[in-house]
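User: Just a sanity check before I run the rest of the batch. Below are the structure tokens for the first item. I only need the designed sequence back.
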């Protein structure tokens, strides 16, 4: 009874977050209507990409110049994947994204760019057979995962790491189907992989088997062979159960 009295007599702890000069009802209405804009991004992506499978999503730095070895390596990987029958999906911008789109654009399969509107850095490259524009990062990230049969991760910064950890988390937790997650250029990723083993595994943050979710290659041919080997005994097309999983991403 005493606990109930104390609880009943406590002041309301819910904050009154009404910004000065802002009509909270108007803002709430705008926020609610924004959901339709988010829905439209998912609808357009589904309608335009549903027939491009199998597809491979490739990530990497937007700041890599065309004369950098990473740029050439990304272009070679994308071209080989495209000529092997994979639609190739990138972020649609500069740097590694442009290299990826360029390689796929001159290959046999479609080059897809999932462009994002940013205050700086992002602009759409010209090597896109299919170009989509997103305002919301999370809608774009779901699209990368939903239509991919594999993830290829080139050297990059925060955005690249964000996509890598998103993929690892979704596969680890079973929120998407198991697929190859391939890190390209071992010297770049060595420190991170050592940290996975020395810190995350040693301190029990992940299981040792979780390290098997990623593979590391240096050559374009190895990337393509790994993807084909993963699907050697199963179809590229998602199973009915996997389709249901995608609905809950």
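Assistant: Here's the designed sequence for the first item:
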């Amino acid at each position: 009874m005493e606990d109930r009295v104390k609880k009943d007599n406590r002041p309301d702890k819910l904050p009154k977050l009404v910004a000065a000069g802002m009509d909270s009802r108007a803002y709430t209405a705008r926020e609610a209507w924004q959901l339709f804009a988010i829905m439209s991004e998912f609808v357009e992506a589904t309608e335009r990409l549903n027939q491009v499978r199998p597809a491979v999503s490739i990530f990497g730095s937007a700041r890599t110049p065309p004369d950098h070895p990473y740029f050439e390596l990304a272009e070679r990987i994308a071209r080989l994947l495209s000529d092997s029958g994979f639609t190739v999906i990138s972020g649609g911008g500069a740097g590694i994204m442009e290299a990826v789109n360029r390689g796929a654009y001159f290959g046999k399969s479609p080059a897809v760019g999932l462009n994002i509107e940013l205050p700086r850095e992002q602009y759409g490259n010209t090597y896109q057979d299919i170009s989509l524009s997103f305002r919301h990062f999370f809608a774009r990230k779901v699209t990368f995962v939903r239509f991919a049969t594999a993830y290829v991760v080139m050297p990059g910064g925060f955005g690249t790491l964000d996509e890598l950890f998103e993929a690892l988390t979704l596969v680890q937790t079973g929120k998407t189907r198991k697929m190859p997650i391939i890190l390209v250029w071992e010297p770049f990723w060595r420190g991170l992989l050592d940290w996975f083993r020395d810190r995350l595994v040693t301190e029990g943050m992940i299981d040792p088997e979780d390290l098997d979710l990623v593979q590391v290659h240096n050559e374009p041919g190895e990337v393509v062979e790994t993807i084909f080997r993963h699907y050697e005994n199963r179809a590229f097309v998602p199973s009915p159960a996997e389709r249901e999983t995608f609905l809950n991403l």
